[in-house]
Amino acid sequence: MSGDYYPYSKYTRVWIPDPEDVWKAAEIVKDYKEGDPVLQLKLEDETPLQYPVGPKSNPLPFLRNPDILVGENDLTALSYLHEPAVLHNLRVRFLESNAIYTYCGIVLVAINPYEQLQIYGEEVINAYSGQNMGDMDPHIFAVAEEAYKQMARDEKNQSIIVSGESGAGKTVSAKYAMRFFATVGGSASDTNVEDKVLASSPIMEAIGNAKTTRNDNSSRFGKYIQIGFNRHYHIIGANMRTYLLEKSRVVFQAEDERNYHIFYQLCASASLPEFRDLALTSAEDFTYTSLGENIFIEGVNDAEDFKKTREAFTLLGIKESSQNSIFKVIASILHLGNVEICSDRDGESCHISRKDVHLQHFCKLLGVELQQMEHWLCHRKLATTSETYVKTMSTKQATNARDALAKHIYARMFDWIVEHINLSLQTSIKQHSFIGVLDIYGFETFEVNSFEQFCINYANEKLQQQFNSHVFKLEQEEYMKEQIPWTLIDFADNQPCIDLIEARLGILDLLDEECKVPKGTDQNWAQKLYNKHSSSVHFQKPRMSNISFIIIHFADKVEYQCDGFLEKNRDTVYEEQINILKASQFQLVADLFSDKDDVVPAKSARVNVRALKTVPKAPNKEHRKTVGHQFRTSLHLLMDTLNATTPHYVRCIKPNDFKEAFSFDSRRAVQQLRACGVLETIRISAAGYPSRWTYPDFFNRYRVLMKKSDMTTADKKLVCKNLLETLIKEPDMFQFGKTKIFFRAGQVAYLEKLRTDKFRSACIKIQKTVRGWLQRIRYRKIRKMAITLQRYGRGYMARRYAEFLRQTRAAIICQKQYRMVRERREFLRVRRAVVTIQAYAKGMFTRRIYQEFLLHHKAMIIQKNVRGWMQRKKFRRARNAAITIQCAFRRMHAKRQLKQLKIEARSAEHLKKLNTGMENKIVQLQRKMDDQSKELRTQNEQLQTVNTSLGSEVNKLQKQLELLRSQQEDGGQVRSLEEELEHLRKELEEAHALRNKMEEEHINEKMDLTQRVDELERENSLLKSEKEEMNRRILQHSKSTEEEVSSMSLQSELDKERERYQNLLKEFSRLEQRYDNLKEEMSLNKFQPGHRRNPSNQSSLESDSNYPSVSTSEIGDTEDSIQLVDEMGIDKAAMDISLFMKLQKRVRELEQERRKLQLTVEKMEELAKRKGSESRLSTSEQETADLAYNNLKRQELESENKKLKNDLNELRKTVAERASQNSSSNELQDSYNLLLSQLKSANEELDARKEEVLILRTQIVSAAQLQEKNENILSLNTTETDSSPVVNNSKEPVDKEEALKAYHGLCESKKLLEAQLQTQSRQHKDELEALHTQIELLKGDIEDKQEKLSYMMSLSPEAQVEYSVQQEITRLTNDNLDLKELVEKLEKNERKLKKQLKIYMKKVQELEAAQAAAQSSRSKPELIRQVTVQRKEKDFEGMLEYNKEDEALLVKTLINDIRPSNVSGTVPCLPAYILFMCIRHADYINDDQKVESLLTSTINAIKKVLKKNNDDFEMTSFWLANTSRLLHCLKQYSGEEAFMTQNTPKQNEHCLKNFDLAEYRQVLSDLSIQIYQQLIKVAEGIIQPMIVSAMLESESIPSLAGVKPMGYRNRSSSMDTDADGPTSYTLQALIKQLGQFNNIMRDHGLDPEIIGQVVRQLFHCINAVTLNNLLLRKDVCSWSTGMQLRYNTSQLEEWLRGNNLYQSKAAATLEPIIQAAQLLQVKKKTSQDAEAICTLCTALTMQQIVKILNLYTPLNEFEERVTVSFIRNIQNRLQERNDPPQLLLDTKHTFPVLFPYSPSALSLEMLHFPASLNIDFLVRV
User: Fold this and answer.
1) Residue 785's pLDDT band (cuts 50, 70, 90)
2) Which of 580, 701, 1142, 1553 has its CA 20 to 30 A from that of 484?
3) Closest C-alpha among 259, 262, 261 to residue 248
């Protein structure tokens, strides 16, 4: 150390002892020289103090650390390591920063806050998962993550040892550690092992925890839980061991304490029906639960806790019957405590009343005999060598025996529950590794210490020894790794104290030996201890007592009272009572007390961990083990387990004894710190080299102490060595390691002082220079100002004199003008007075004359008016009398008429008059039905006549056949067939002409109808204009406000619904992925052990292949209605209620029509089946003809006929509705009926012509076959020599063939006639149903009119007029809507009919070509091929045709095998365009199966590819772009007007014609959302490791970040030990990665809106991860980090602007981290600063703001910490905010994605396909 540096100089701060606060801060006011007896100090309150100093009695006080080191995360980072520094650091962190966790080397110190903190959520677990321990703020999750990481990396078992005194928070800490493992290492299967592990906690708390004076939920037992993991480090099971249950609490509780929670929970739920048999009441009524005199705990509901306990039992698989048995045992213990034992007169015996209710309940609940239990509770058996005696017990002995029995029952039940919990948590899978969590009591010392405290402190001695050896080992490893000289560090070894307790003839051996003595006593045992161990340094005998002893433990001296040691060690229970319980009729009770061998497992290299079963044997057995022996054995087993693992230590500290939130009692804290070994860790660390720096960090921190010449060397290590050798003269004060520099205690403080002095001198020099510069600037400014003032002063004086001259001249002028004006005003005033006097005099005289004249004139007017008034009054009186008489007469006459009208209105004749038109219509309809039924009968008769004529024709043909046999020439028959063919052709031409004529008539009729509709539309437009004018006035006022409010609310609801829907999709995909993983794991476990796995070709989503079929039903009417709503506007449509009523009605009609169509299809299928069965009965030649006939019928009739009939049925229904609704318009109805009849006749004629064509084609086929056979026969006749017999023999089969052909022709004619008849009958049925529907509509119309009439009669005349006008307007509106619908339907049907006619024309041409081919062709296969050939359309473009068998090849080529690089130089999203062109062709040929199959295969193949490449961003982006483009194509070419507005005319021609793919659009939309979520997941997985390093750790602004001393955790071996250290990323690397994402998405043609949403989600991830790490890391909460962070965010914003992504709202997601950076930079002192912070930080919650202020750490002494008062001020100002309690941001939050419609401008027919795609099997169409 430097020679001129002495630590105890002026202004040095020190710690001095204090009786209240343990240590008090002071400052040296005078330099101390060696040998001075007094040290001059000044306390913090400015009180002077003379501190005596002596070489032995009073050493120099401890030095304080610099303020920059106060509040460090790790105590080992302090420069001065001693008790006051540790205590002060913990106090500052706990009270000022509310930080309850602090590292102390390898130990995590946890202080109980007595308040629920929001630092244990799942987002905090995610933040700590995968992080190095020193990178984040201290936390129990960091320790758990360290253990989990070391287990996975080193493949070594781990242990977390949680210790502390009662109420320090041990159980909660262990619970949170297990929650971390359950979350991070969740089970891979659905066994929910992690839930079971967590479920064991409420059970163990219920049966093992109780309220004490120190803790409301104190664990009264120790436990060690082992969580097992498989090779993939997923939880597979767990095991629990328990230690030293406090059984005495069952029968005794101190004041203000309670028994175990389960007793009070059961009593609180005693009123439940299932617990009535337990006979329980309130806990106050039982002795064992009322000894503490307080059965309640504030804030605890025992009944609710009992529900949780039962749920945990159920989750762990314990049956309901077993639970009830457990509760019976617990209730029996309560009843046993209330059994009253009465003393007999002699005092040596006792008895129990036979009527004791509690004893009866006890025996009933346990299923034992009452008399035996009553007897043996008051008696005991004494056995000698010869005989056995039964001896009575006194009341005290019986009471002790009863209490011992109760304790024994509870202990056995406790062990049974633990054993079954372990059974439910165990697994058959092999355990690879485990992490153990030890929750054990810490060192205890009370006023009265007994056997329990002795065992607890013995266990802590063993744990402390293990802890010391582990710390020593770590220190040695660190020194050896850094290759520095190792010197032995002396530490206190407590092995002598352990030997005193457990060695041969130690305290435990002497206790067991005394227990074996028949009459051994506690006093005798104490005397043996005095005699044996009085010479031990760790054993003392109290001066004033002979029944106690003192043991000097590592933590403190403890005096133990010997009373009760022997009894508690024996744990005596009488055998007779146990035998009664063994004979219980309940199996569980008998199992509890069955004998089990208590075998201690042998020690081995591999520790087999299992539950500790401390089941005592019968008390009379010779080798029964005592409690002390069992505890020693279990403790040795525990130590073996811990020594075989890597331990991690958590020391829980209780800050005060009053359970006050964030209250720190220094004396209690120091006591616990000494007891738990934290100070020993500090001492060991301080004995070596506690302060350690890496060379780069040391260089960055202390380079200000270097000279310019020292910086010439590039080797930083050499520079650091040279600097230290210059600054610190003593070489023993530091050591140079491989990567670090090691310092003795105090050396860092010395370097910090030098650094501070350097900065201080630099500041003085800077201040001197700046002040001189400021003074020079000020002098120049003053001189310049003086010159300027003089110049301006002289100018001002001159200007003032000139102004005086001007004012003098102006005053003279003003005086002259004023005098003139004054004289003129006087003259004018006099003249005005004279004129006024004259005017008043003249007026007075004139008014007098006028008054006299007016008086005479008024008298005459009065007389005239009085006379007129009298005459008018007389006239009015006469007129009123006449009117009164007339009114009376008219009222009487009107009453008579009204009465007569009412009578007529009630009569039926009136209704008949009203409904005359309706009756006529009904009569006409009935007449029409009768005519149709007559026609049906006539047609039946005609059918019978035709059948008879067919029979006669058959006979005639047979006769002709006989005649033909006699003829020898064959040519005549051929000529007759040719003539018949010519005749048929003529008839066909006539049919064509007739059809053309019908088309012309149809066109003319339609033109007339169109004209009529135009007239109605003009009338409708007039009514609409009036109606719109009225609606416009109503809507004008509310439209603007309502639109804005509704749009905002709808948008918010839409976003919420979209987010909820996408979350469901995300959950679905997650479950889907989990299902696939489970299947793979099952297959892996079954067939392939190890890490290899087979490739799976199975579909990942088998259920997705069954998509709904493509809907081909007609939905035109609904679409038209929706289109009408769009044309009218939402507001207008909303005002027109009738329009929506019409839409609803139309929906119901469409549903009925769909059902009718379904029935029709089923009937036609049945008819086709019957025809097929009939055709199979014919001969092979007939099958050939039937095949041709069926092919023609399938090609030409099925599809076209179905559509035409559906259209005609729809038209009939619409016409019927129009006829019913417009019955008053006879002319319009006649036009409709005419149109209907014409369409019906056209349809019938068309069907007839089709059947004739079929017959002709069948006959042509038959004739061709017959001609071919005749030619073969003729050729045979010419080759034979004996011609005449051969000819005779060959003619006979030819004639049979002809007869058969003729017969089959007749059969075909018969079939056709039957089909026509069935068609007509179906038509008649349809018409009959239409008539019934029309009748129902008429009835309904009549009822509506009657209701309206009755309602209108009840209104006043004015209201009747208004009501009638409204009804008329509504009727006309509905009529206009119906007419418009009808016109649109007719136009649509016209287009369809035209299309069908074109198809018929083409088919007629094909038929003529087939006939020509039949005449010229002679081969049968060619004829068949010609009949079944498919037509080839050449009028369409932009389609790709493929064969059905090539579908798998298409999917494989375009989806499975394609790579983004294969299509990088082509049009983006080319696979999507190709797939859509194939879909278009399938739609064009009307093949719904092909469309469905292709879309289903495409979707499943995309899912397979994405699953295979689930971590490939490029492939995921590629298929997101193609899937969204395919979705846009299906919308763009769907034919819906909403998607056709931006199409070109050519694109509109390419719209889908036959299928509505809306359902598949929804499936593709869901698939796009899933791909988007996978893309976000992949991108976040890539950038997440880069975020913290790039945003918080890298130096974007060089030399800005400061470095502070680091503690043990920053140098622990758990961090990456590579030479280069952990991978670090810069901001440029992060921006480069974002740029790569953006370029990939743009190259793939992804929509810019989707790219913006992806970037927004990634920026949210960057913001959330950065802010969460900032909130959990104290080392980055500084001014320099805020500057770096603000610069980094500005760079990200610049990147957004440079890539045109700023409008994507991505920048808004960075607002919280921007405000956090500003918060780190702003001033934080005054109230104005607090107000500014509250105004600035709107995106941060109050918890986040307070957390950042608490974590704010100055890196230099010139910065100041944020005061507690300032933080409280901030909290008070932010109280009004309703911020959520969550501290961290949700990194898994996803914004709802929206895929906006984006049509393509490309023309499908112009696309070019590269040859590299290998799609030659596709044909352009």
Assistant:
1) very high
2) 701
3) 259
